[in-house]
Specification:
The protein has 1 helix and no strands. The chain is mainly α. The chain is rod-shaped and about 55 Å long.
Length: 38
């Protein structure tokens, strides 16, 4: 039971990290688009 919780916790942490990176990538791409339009 505890090992399952640990595994789930690390999996969730990895998911959060990837979501953060994805959000940062989207933001930088949007910034590039705005800059190129000007």
């Amino acid at each position: 039971m505890i090992t399952t919780l640990k595994f789930y916790y690390s999996y969730a942490a990895k998911g959060l990290q990837q979501t953060e990176i994805f959000a940062i990538n989207i933001r930088s791409v949007m910034g590039m688009v705005i800059i190129s339009e000007n």
